[in-house]
Design brief:
Distance between the termini: 22 Å
Strand order of the largest sheet: 2-1-3
Helix content: 25-40%
Strand content: 15-25%
Radius of gyration: 12 Å
Number of helices: 2
Number of strands: 3
Structural class: alpha/beta
Amino acid sequence: MDTNSKLSNNTAVILVSHGSSLPYAEVTFTEIKEKFIKATGLPTEIGYMKVSSPSIAGAVEILKEEVDAARFLVAAELV
């Protein structure tokens, strides 16, 4: 997927997950994030609604430190 030609360089993505107390859940979401980054090349972070961290607000802060993003795309990954 060549999203860089469609999205500006100042776009970052937050993958939103509910969060889970199951020990393998964060590993699974991290794998999804890594695959997404590999496929798109876009700066990406996971933001959790509950239980896990970082929170959605925390994910925004992490991305703001990594890239000068003017636009954040949010995608829910509720599994």
